[in-house]
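Record type: ASSEMBLY
Status: queued
Input:
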Amino acid sequence: MDKDTIKKVSEVARLNLTDEELTDFGKDFDSILDYFSKLHDEKLKDLPSKETASVLRNDETSIDNVIPEKILDNAPEKENNLYKVPKGSK
Amino acid sequence: MKGVKIGLEIHEQLDTKSKLFCTCPTDYRDAEPNKSICPVCTGQPGSKPFGLNEKALNAAIKIAIALNCKIVADKPVQMRRKHYIYPDLPSGYQRTSESIGVDGNLDSVQIHEVHIEEDPGRFFLREGFVDLNRSGTPLIEITTDPVFDSPQHAREWLEKLASILDYLNVTKKEEGTMRIDANISLNNGNKVEIKNINSFRNVEKALTFEITRQGDLLRRGQTVERETRHFDEKMILTSPSRKKETEEDYRHMPDPDIPPLTIKKYLVDKIRKTLPELPQAKTKRFVKQYKLSGQNAENIVSDPYAADVFEAVVKTIDPVLASNWFVGQLKKTLNYNNMKLRDSKMTEKQLSSLLKLTEKGKITERAAELVLREMVLRPAEPEKVIENLGISDFGDLNTIIKSVVDKNEKAAADYKTGKKEAFEFLVGQVMKITKGSADPEKIRKLLKKRL
Amino acid sequence: MKLSEKVQAYLDAINRSKLNAFVSINKNAENDAEKIQRKINSGKAGRLAGYVFSIKDNIAVSGMRLTCASKMLENYVSPYDATVVKRIIAEDGLIIGKTNMDEFACGASGETSYFGPTLNPHDEKRVPGGSSAGSAASVAAGLCDVSLGSDTGGSIRCPSSFCGVFGLKPTYGSVSRYGLVDMAMSLDQIGPITKNVSDAALVLSVINGSDKMDNTVVKRQEDYTKFTRKNIKGMKIGVVEEFFDGCDHNVEKAVRDGIEALKGKGAEIVNASVPKTSIAVPTYYLNMFAEFSSAMQKFDGLKYGFRKNGSDLNDTVAESRSALGEEVKRRILLGTYITMKEFRSKWYSTALKAREAIKHEMLAALKKCDLLTGPTMPFTAFKLGEKIKDPIEMYLSDMLTVSANLSGLPAASIPLNVKGLPVGMQLHANAGEEGKILAAAAAYERATK
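Status: finished
Output:
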């Protein structure tokens, strides 16, 4: 897998990789995918349609006053009960 | 417009008490930020979606039926994950269903498909704040084929769609919940998508701007880039979004946490039976049954509440007279106050009584208008409103006219010698006494008769 | 012995231990012990009263850290309880702490933890197996009574085999995953790691059964304790020859002896075959990578977890995510790659079909017998650092455990009666037939006592 492909994949995956990582992962991926490509020698049938089990829920609410606070307590940064994150652009 | 191809994607919140995959309330508007949240709708590590909200599913089926879609009942419908990382999307993917209805049409516009999905939270990008109260609220998404040939056509059709959704009564009633993505291409060129437009008027404006922009590019021999843009309503222009193309690989994947769902045919039939009379049919009936003009009928029918009140009123009032009031003064008054009829506490009976008074000629139209303006805001029996407004003598115009003529003998004589100003003076005197509540035309008619 | 004395003894042992099996200790453990003791004294205690649990640190316990042994979640405190935790507490089980693991369950050795590797209680130079490394080590080393682990491709059974304890991965969809941090949602399952079979049967009885918070669990709760006393006379056990391919000689011998012991208890031993075992590893990893990359999207440093500010919003996300360990990143990248537009039909779609093919073979083999058996791992615990530099070598360790996950079937690792490093024998059953596994495992236990 060439560096450009890994670079593109890392952008989609939102990971900043160092040059060294790009090279190392590139080598890894080649050998891993090379080994995994033995799947392509298998004769595989098309997938049967999936089993279904409609799990539906009645439209009912429940309110917990403590959990929202605990959830927000884990925020790296917050202000007036809002998460604070870097500003965005449209 | 020649060569213009517009397609629309409409998102509207479904009217449920709880979110799509958790039990948090959806009436977050009155809540403090980040209060209507739980591990599920904030994507806490280890949380899983609960069962799909049945009411949201049924609402989507109802909408799909009303838009003449084929309901996907022959194969399982899978919830899928649409991956992208953004502050408003706590799990890094949006759960969105496969199509629930396909191949529909409304007013000869082809509906591509209808499905349900989760609304993201709110990201205030200028400040960098995130509120997840909205996150996970059920949305319906309706996608049309690219069949509109002008921005105006798109807006008019959206109004029809909004009216149908209003009739179905399964979407949120609050203003500003509808969000629209519009795509547009000129002369089969590249498609540009304008995301997240919040009103029909802005859809029209954004598209109008795009036609000019793209037209200019093409005239100069340049190509239109395939891209996503957003609409700035203050500047009335669109500008490109700063999203990289690579980020738009959503890597759709069936959500392993949610087993596929089969929509049973009997459920579709059951929901079909609950469909109300829809605007098109109702308009036709109004024309036939009440002998209304097509325009008046369509106008009244566009608001389901108004249509119901109309049908109650015409039990005692002449339908044509009533319809003229509905599309005329009543509409004007409501628009002036930025209200819909359902926002006014005025009862059908009060409105009927007022129209009865005008029908019988007991009050002038001008007086009735004044009374109506008051009644819309502070509903009461019309007689009471008339009294409160102090326009008690409006009823007997002849008496007033007689006294005005008696008191102004000179003016009356001048008129008879052909002086037009004298007549206007007398009309003015009558108006003064009736405090403007009397119909000037009627005054003129009666005055001429007396003189 | 009173519960609080037992808890104190465990806490002391954990303190002294050099195994690095625990990531967090329950600060209220002594209080909890007293509360439960009062219930015991008044005769109102639940079924798990007296049991001291360790819980893998990818399972949520409200008020305690939920780190997944990652820098990303080093300081994350769970705002809620996993369903299994709720059920354990409701039956008066006591949670003493959270156990070390491979980071986000990515590993078969227990070495990828941000907090350092867990050591094997039988030989501290060797790995305990992963990813539920601390869970198995804590049970084997006597730092608790029982543990809950999670198993996506062998993460309960591998360390159970290496540490010489009993570990059971239940049928997919029989135990709620609510509160289990996702690795691969269609493969993950929580299960018990215990010193003996009856403890596992009891824990499974408490934690299994339908949950409104997990759509994939719809079956009613079942009691499994009765199966451990069941006679296995006439039970058909299929020996899968492919499971012995490339397996160490001492492991093969130990397992074949184990099978003889079952035969001695009246089981009928037959031959069985699952040829597609040869493609189990690529099939498993491709499916897991895809789901794992999806599951890991939520770790963006914005709402919780590690944040490192970058030049803008996107960069902050990418910088924060770079706190993830090497193996985690490797799997996210591969999972992203194989699900991208250009590559998905070649990789992801093929992997889904291969999964179906393996499931088909496993079910076909189980039509002819009650249980399938073979070794859990092809070798005994290897040395720390031996495989960590070679991903393929590490992935191949999972050869014999992943088929159960790909097929959604229950499977357990039974500690065999051997001298030296522990060896595990694996038993697979049809969906919902954990009872048969428990019966056979208990029979083996009785035979070798």
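Annotation: The longest helix of chain C spans residues 348-367.
Annotation: Chain C has a mean pLDDT of 97.
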